[in-house]
Design goal:
single chain, mainly beta, 4 helices, disordered N terminus
């Protein structure tokens, strides 16, 4: 059971699943009952916006004939109200009802793909602003190719921008990384690793490339389109900047900001900024220590970076202003240590795990603090979560008495943090003096930065469900719901669950929903997209919201992932499980040799 919008009424979680199961890409329709309900609601809304003059006249006449004092009073009031309504109608226009966005996935088109389309760092930026094309990396038996692929039905041909051979890839580390589009006809990407061509061939580094697409429809371009008898779309490229990378350094992180005409890049030690309009690359900072798994984290707008330092004269979390070049402590180490900082989605706040010192320890180096040690670095576990603004002012300290906090997530559109709270597990090493880890026992959320000076206490959302033997399984948060009033959570071997702020935890889908490599799941209307791994190595496509789960597609095999998405389209690569490259020499890994590209129209706009 789950509470949706009405707190006092519980209703079962509705899972809408198609009646057939073919194992192939299929068009799934919403149940007719739901569609009829929406139409009925729309008609009721429109009815309330209309006034029937004859009905009004008849009611006035009936009131005029009434004799009792109460009836006379009501008659007078009614006449005044009717007159006011008619006066308003004469001089004003009734406001049009705002269009309602309805999430209704429909399979728009499929395209055969020879090879495998890879995931990208920026799936939401991969689609051109006009929604007609998207950037992708396609790997096949010949090598790796940066391509432009069609989204809408007006185009049909894939355009190859450039390629690197299989031989080059087998002997060196190299990859294409699409950034996105700066306009309908201009795009950017990086070439990372040992350069296969150009002015820096055989050098190890990063090339920033600006590409241009021409020959498509439009008044300023040729009217010929890909897939016609005329000339297909053409591309031209320009290597706008290059910088070297140290040997074996593959930790490059990129922030693409087309609206600001900027690209921020960083590895563990250096921060760069590339001005797209001026084609100018600037080194902003180059003296950071090289710590494993601890690289600088940019704010959403690139105006700041936060990072951790563990030096004799500097220890803690520091913030760097990219405009002024100023560095200052944000959460310096002292009696406590904060680590693994994460920005809120609007860049206003930074949250980090916090732990205290070991008993008898002195100094501010990392080894002096009660960290949960992992295989290579500290685990994401703290005795509290500290939230500060960009000036270092503590906004909130989140704690649950007697529990450790782990796996925190910021909400997408609100200053809310979700996290797991649990107890420490005993260490197998009796001499370490430290517990080994923490298993999440319950899901919590905390609202940050409210107007009142008294911080709100964390809100308990529910216990992690135990298995049939009463054992507490491993769990992890996936993402908030779009309204920030609940959290989706993966429970190992027990599916994905929704923990609502005003309801009981409920399982939404069976199978494993790992999330999108830690990134925010695509959101359409009030729903999030989930690609769920199910038994027998299959993938199911779902849209999930606070009280409903709707399955809209499925494929055989595990090879399905989002390669691009826009405000209205979701683009998924679906590999053919029957043709893979297991133990073959033409691929470094067992990827499908071919597949299909599935483009879904996610929204249906209801007008007046």
């Amino acid at each position: 059971m789950i509470t949706a919008s009405n707190r006092g009424k519980e209703k079962p979680y509705k899972a809408k699943v198609p009646q057939h199961n073919t194992g192939e890409l299929t068009r799934f329709r919403r149940p007719e009952k739901t569609a009829e309900a929406e139409v009925q609601n729309l008609q009721q809304t429109k009815t309330l916006q209309r006034i029937n003059p004859r009905l009004i006249a008849s009611r006035v006449q009936a009131l005029k004939q009434a004799k009792s004092p109460m009836a006379l009073l009501v008659r007078a009031m009614a006449i005044v109200l009717v007159a006011s309504s008619l006066t308003g109608m004469a001089g004003c226009t009734i406001l049009a009802r705002k269009p309602v966005t309805v999430v209704e996935p429909q399979l728009f088109r499929t395209t055969d793909v020879e090879g495998t389309l890879q995931t990208t760092d920026f799936p939401a930026d991969s689609v051109s602003p006009d929604g007609s094309h998207f950037l992708a990396v396609k790997d096949d038996a010949d090598g790796s190719h940066l391509v432009i692929m069609p989204v809408d039905g007006e185009y049909s041909e894939t355009i190859c921008i450039e390629s690197v051979s299989k031989d080059w890839l087998s002997g060196s580390w190299f990859s294409y990384r699409p950034l996105g589009w700066t306009s309908d006809s201009e795009f950017m990407y990086t070439k990372v690793g040992w350069q296969p061509s150009g002015a820096h061939k055989s050098e190890r580094g990063v090339a920033l490339v600006i590409g241009r697409l021409s020959g498509l429809s439009g008044k300023a371009q040729s009217e010929t389109k890909p897939g016609t008898d005329g000339q297909a779309g053409q591309t031209s490229t320009e290597e706008a900047a290059f910088f070297a990378l140290p040997y074996r350094d593959s930790s490059l992180q990129t922030l693409f900001l087309p609206g600001q005409k900027q690209v921020y890049l960083n590895n563990n030690t250096t921060i760069w900024r590339f001005d797209i309009a001026e084609k100018n690359l600037t080194v902003l900072k180059s003296d950071l220590p090289d710590y494993i798994y601890r690289r600088p984290i940019p704010s959403p707008k690139g105006d700041y970076f936060v990072y951790e330092l563990n030096e004799k004269d500097k220890s803690g979390i520091f913030i760097f202003n990219t405009a002024t070049g100023e560095e200052k402590p944000l959460l310096p180490n002292g009696d406590t240590m904060s680590f693994y900082p994460a920005w809120s989605f609007d860049g206003k706040y930074i949250a980090a795990y916090t732990v205290g010192k070991k008993e008898g320890a002195s100094g501010t180096a990392w080894h002096n603090y009660m960290l949960f040690e992992g295989e290579d670095t500290a685990q994401s576990i703290g005795s509290s979560i500290t939230v500060v603004d960009r000036e270092g002012t503590v906004v909130d300290t989140i704690q649950v008495e007697g529990k450790y906090l782990q796996n925190f997530r910021w909400s997408q559109n609100d200053h809310t943090i979700g996290f797991l709270a649990g107890s420490a597990q005993p260490s197998q090493d009796e001499n370490s003096g430290l517990p080994s880890s923490v298993l999440g026992e319950g899901v919590w959320m905390a609202r940050i930065g409210k107007s009142s000076k008294q911080a709100e206490a964390p809100v308990y959302l529910g216990d992690i469900p135990r298995d049939a033997n009463g054992t507490l399984p491993y769990s992890s948060l996936i993402t908030f719901g779009p309204d920030s009033k609940g959290i989706f959570c993966n429970v190992y071997e027990n599916g994905a669950w929704f923990f609502a702020e005003n309801g009981k935890p409920v399982k939404v889908v069976d199978g494993l929903w790992p999330g999108f490599d830690g990134e925010t799941a695509p959101v359409y209307g009030n729903s999030v997209v989930a690609l769920v791994s199910v038994e027998e190595s299959g993938k199911e496509f779902w849209i999930l919201n606070a009280d409903q789960a709707t399955k809209f597609g499925e494929v055989k095999g595990p090879w399905a992932w989002v390669v691009a998405n826009s405000d209205s389209k979701l683009i998924i690569f679906c590999g053919d499980v029957s043709v893979t490259s297991d133990n073959a020499t033409d691929y470094p890994m067992a990827f499908p040799r071919k597949g299909k590209l599935a483009v879904y129209s996610m929204l249906k706009s209801e007008g007046n």
